[in-house]
Amino acid sequence: MGVLVSQTQAFAPTHRLLGRVSRRAKNSEPHPYDFRRPIKLSREHTRTLQIAYETFARQYTTLLTSTLRVVSQVSLVSIQQLTYDEYISGLANPTIVATLTLDPLPGAAIMEFSLSTAMASIDHMLGGPGGPQIERPLTDMELPLLRDLLNRVLDEMHYAFESIADFRPMLGAIDYNPQFVQAAAPADAVIVASFEMHVGSEECIMTFCLPFTSIFPKLQGNDNDVTLSDSQRRTREEAHRNMVAALGTTPIEVSVRFDSVELRPEQIVRLEPGDVVPLSHAVTAPLAVTAADIVFAHAVPGSQGPRLACLVVPTPLNETENQ
């Protein structure tokens, strides 16, 4: 018994399949890929930073309100991964650009907000009404007030980031032109957090820029906390032994030096063959044996066969006390 299938029924599944393929192709459009930033923040990393920055925003809000005695609000807006050049190019000029160190982490951070907000904050600290201010450089009396406020803000940043990394942000120079601040190379990756900041009637977008290479390893966690298998442990131990053995046979340039002497440029350019340069090195004092400008022994000069040589002697008592 034959079965008659209509043309519409035979091609209906094919139409549905083509529809699914077409929709899938539409969702698989190419996306731009930046080869300068092969490593990007994952959702987990962004969420970790978001918790820290929101904690910082709450602490900053409380600090501003209690210090300035005016209703203030700081709210996190976004977290982005940019290059340093992209970040600097997007800042206004003039603005407050505070350079920060992140001891013991390498690199420098930047805290930036509008000059008018800084002026309004200082006006509130001095008992004024705040409000719109004339944009101008801070005076010698106003700058210490702002630095004192920012130092207290950085204490709150230290508290907010304690769960991620134990670093102590320290305030450095304060500039007004972002183009003059060289905190990183133009192509270096940075993590930029943007905050909406209200101080009384004044409002602005405040940004906080962290070097990517400094904070990213901390977001990944401590490698020492990872449990290793026996094979992984043996591989690490063998690599350590190989490294120690290679370091033991690596040639290192060693120098034997007198104590240095200071000369003025005019004396240096007038030096001629036959001139005598008096040294500050005592006749009875041994010479310093150094490698990479590090003194690791002392010696007295002599000879061995046709070559000059030195005899290693005990370190002088005064040198031992200095070490």
Automatic annotation (TrEMBL):
Name of a matching Pfam family: FliM
UniProt KW keywords: Bacterial flagellum, Cell membrane, Cell projection, Chemotaxis, Cilium, Flagellar rotation, Flagellum, Membrane
GO cellular component, one term: plasma membrane
Origin superkingdom: Bacteria
Residues covered by the Flagellar motor switch protein FliN-like C-terminal domain: 247-312
Main localization (coarse): other
GO molecular function, one term: cytoskeletal motor activity
Gene Ontology terms describing biological process: bacterial-type flagellum-dependent swarming motility; positive chemotaxis
Membrane topology: Peripheral membrane protein
PANTHER family reported for this sequence: FLAGELLAR MOTOR SWITCH PROTEIN FLIM, YOP PROTEINS TRANSLOCATION PROTEIN Q
Family, as annotated: Belongs to the FliM family.
Protein name, UniProt field: Flagellar motor switch protein FliM
Source organism of this protein record: Planobispora longispora
Native organism taxonomy: Bacteria, Bacillati, Actinomycetota, Actinomycetes, Streptosporangiales
